[in-house]
Amino acid sequence: MESDGSRYSNAQLDDYHHLRRRDDYPWRPRAELRLVARMSGDLRGTYGFGFWNAPYSPLASRSMALPASAWFFGNGSGNLAWSPHSHATGFKAATLDTRRLPALALAPLSPLVMLANRWPAWYERTWPVLQPPLGLSERMLSTDTAWHEYRIRWQHNALQWYVDEQLVHEVAHAPRGPLGLCIWIDNQWLRATPAGHFGWGLTSTYSQLDVHLEP
């Protein structure tokens, strides 16, 4: 994909276009995604593959939703570090489910939590305790331009991410579903941090995501 940054550009394959999010998205626990992919170029936008509920996509549902995802996710600009051990940019195995009851219970406190997270001592100690109620977990991964096999095993109470048949991340919780499959690469940068810093914009990029889906 090539873009000069003057407008949003996106190359995407999904299976939820205009489906009803709550009832018709096709994927639920005991699902598995397996594909072979390689990434190249400057990768300044976002890119990845996995399951999510398209919480704000005009190409999916016209209504907004609380986000839920289980995927391999990358961003080359901005800041999407949601863990004290994460990086602002890079490629990661990640999951999030803010539809969980514990997450909904914490929602009224979110402005205070984001302000408190600007204090490094609080953030390092307390934010990891708050991540499980949000169904939030992520693990940074290395990248290169070679082909690799990626796999996500989505079970009722667990998620596993594999790269070349090696387990790279595992959690004992998972979104309930339903979710849709998405494989994409675009030219947007995003900033959304636990300290309440948010932003969005477009960037020039020359990048490529090649994917072979396995049966």
Give the C-level CATH assignment: Mainly Beta
Beta-strand segment tally: 15
Shape: globular
CATH architecture: Sandwich
Structural class by SSE content? mainly beta
SSE topology string = EEHEEEEEHHHEEEEEEEE
Distance between the termini: 26 Å
The Rg value, from CA coordinates, equals 17 Å
Strand order of the largest sheet: 1-15-3-9-10-11
Beta-strand content bin: 35-45%
CATH fold category name: Jelly Rolls
Largest sheet: 6 strands, antiparallel
Please outline what is shown here.
13% of the residues lie in helices and 43% in strands.
Written overview of the protein:
The protein is mainly beta. It has one domain: Jelly Rolls (Sandwich). 13% of the residues lie in helices and 43% in strands. It has four helices and 15 strands. The strands form three sheets. The chain has a six-stranded antiparallel β-sheet with strand order 1-15-3-9-10-11, with no helix packed on it. The chain has a six-stranded antiparallel β-sheet with strand order 2-12-4-5-7-8, with no helix packed on it. A hairpin with a 4-residue loop joins β9 and β10 (159-163). The radius of gyration is 17 Å and the shape is globular.
